């Protein structure tokens, strides 16, 4: 079919005015936060129901038209980039919260519900949706589930996968499946919802999700510590976890904090400078918990692991301390950072980070390295900033070599080349560093079952 024929047919499959072809819209909806692949979609289509999504998939199969899902477009692996004339299926209009059950502590949402929208709904019901990250104000639930997003609370609450009670999906063949239907117990064979979670939209489209909620945490308190050495991150973590259930354990380097402070709007937590910082969050539900926390802080100081620290005395101060961590990405964005989202088991983090830092510094001493991440679950964000005198194209070419060095270390540590943002297009050439040939073969076979004609998000995860 020609582009004109595709566009004409799309207009018959969705509500009036829900097909966009303007150049600005194609650019906006055809990409995510990655800047490597220029978007080249043929059209953007906005379904409003599962039935319309099904009609789009059946049309795609009949005419061999490729479809790319688009949520909040906050991913960093080009999983939502339409670079080869695909039709983008955007879920912005499928943004309704459909059903709530207080007894089940669950809520059924359409895929386009924004993370923060779900969090606020839960709060109105005196409950809590704990999956949280800096992009909560724009990321959509369908995209979160398609990448099994984690974020800042994984140490206590787990990944997105852990909160899914049921899914409604349209497979790559155009079938509608209702998976698990919100059941807490359902031992009747394969649990197919877990194939779609983390599949990056390559098996079909998630259109609805039933999400579990939990009680709201009480008196969340934040402690920011200046660490003497990277290995002290593990000393502090082990010490606190013996007595206190942490809801978050984040870290960032001195260089990362310097960029945040220079960016403005955030003040240094204390005068002492440290090579690394840890941010701990916990529920101060009683005076005893606060006394325990202060005692542990003093113990870490006496052991020489911590140089200085501050503990929040109010919700406002806690939010302000979080800004030290959450504003890192926006503060370094003008420097065209090369980003890598890596993970290893928690105990191996210090050695893993130090090896990567050393190999990059050895080969490219003029590259500034910014480290931060969810160290409590082993997830590190490596950011290398482009030197001012280096062209963007040359910088990205050098970073391809960095990938090889970094992923060799990842493989040796039996870690993951993508902890949170999926494989997409940016990581598919490196999938074998984390997955065996046999695993990849099984993944290809699963793709063939659900999307035999290869029309759903082709070219993502593997070719």
Describe this structure in words.
- The chain contains 15 helices and 16 strands.
- The two termini are 23 Å apart.
- The protein has a seven-stranded antiparallel sheet, with helices on both faces. A five-stranded antiparallel sheet has the order 5-6-9-7-8. It has a four-stranded mixed sheet with strand order 1-2-4-3, with helices on both faces.
- The longest helix has 21 residues, at 392-412.
- The protein is α+β, with helices and mostly antiparallel strands.
- The protein is globular and about 70 Å long.
* β-strand number: 16
Helix content range of the residues, please? Answer: 25-40%
Strand content is 15-25%
What kind of sheet is the major sheet? 7 strands, antiparallel
Tell me the structural class. alpha+beta
- Annotation field: number of helices: 15
Principal-axis shape:
globular
What's the arrangement of strands in the largest beta sheet? 13-10-12-11-15-16-14
User: Please, what is the average pLDDT?
Assistant: 96
Taking all Cα atoms into account, the compactness measure Rg is 23 Å
């Amino acid at each position: 079919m020609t582009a004109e024929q595709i566009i004409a047919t799309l207009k018959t499959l969705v509500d009036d005015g829900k097909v966009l072809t303007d150049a600005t819209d194609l650019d906006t909806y055809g990409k995510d936060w990655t800047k490597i692949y220029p978007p080249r979609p043929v059209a953007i289509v906005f379904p409003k129901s599962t039935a319309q999504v099904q009609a789009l998939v059946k049309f795609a199969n009949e005419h061999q038209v490729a479809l790319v899902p688009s949520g909040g477009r906050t991913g960093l692996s080009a999983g939502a980039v339409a670079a080869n004339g695909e039709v983008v299926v955007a879920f912005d209009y499928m943004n309704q919260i459909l059903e709530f059950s207080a007894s089940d502590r669950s809520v059924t949402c359409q895929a386009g519900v924004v993370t923060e929208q779900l969090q606020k709904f839960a709060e109105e019901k005196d409950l809590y949706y704990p999956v949280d990250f800096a992009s909560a104000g724009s990321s959509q639930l369908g995209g979160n589930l398609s990448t099994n997003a984690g974020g800042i609370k994984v140490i206590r609450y787990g990944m997105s996968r852990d909160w899914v009670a049921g899914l409604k999906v349209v497979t790559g063949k155009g079938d509608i499946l209702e998976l698990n239907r919100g059941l807490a117990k359902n031992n009747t064979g394969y649990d197919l919802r877990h194939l779609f979670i983390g599949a990056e939209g390559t098996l079909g489209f998630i259109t609805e999700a039933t999400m579990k909620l939990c009680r709201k945490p009480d008196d969340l308190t934040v402690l920011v510590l200046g660490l003497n050495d990277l290995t002290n991150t593990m000393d502090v973590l082990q010490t606190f976890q013996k007595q206190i259930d942490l809801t978050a354990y984040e870290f960032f380097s001195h260089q990362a904090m310097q960029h945040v402070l220079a960016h403005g709007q955030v003040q240094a937590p204390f005068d002492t400078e440290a090579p690394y910082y840890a941010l701990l969050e916990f529920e101060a539900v009683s005076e005893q918990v606060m006394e325990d926390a202060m005692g542990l802080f003093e113990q870490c100081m006496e052991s020489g692991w911590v140089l200085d620290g501050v503990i929040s005395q109010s919700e406002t101060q806690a939010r302000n301390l979080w800004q030290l961590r959450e504003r890192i990405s926006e503060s370094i964005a003008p420097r065209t950072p090369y980003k890598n989202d890596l993970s290893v088991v928690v105990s191996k983090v210090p050695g893993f980070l130090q090896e990567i830092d050393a190999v990059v510094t050895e080969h490219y001493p003029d590259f500034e390295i910014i480290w931060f991440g969810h160290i409590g679950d082993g997830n590190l964000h490596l950011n290398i900033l482009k030197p001012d005198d280096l062209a963007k194209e040359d910088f990205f070419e050098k970073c391809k070599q960095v990938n090889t060095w970094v992923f060799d270390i990842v493989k040796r540590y039996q870690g993951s080349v993508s902890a949170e943002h999926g494989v997409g297009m940016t990581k598919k050439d490196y999938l074998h560093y984390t997955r065996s040939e046999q695993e990849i073969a099984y993944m290809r076979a699963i793709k063939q079952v659900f999307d035999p004609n290869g029309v759903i998000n082709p070219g993502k995860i593997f070719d």
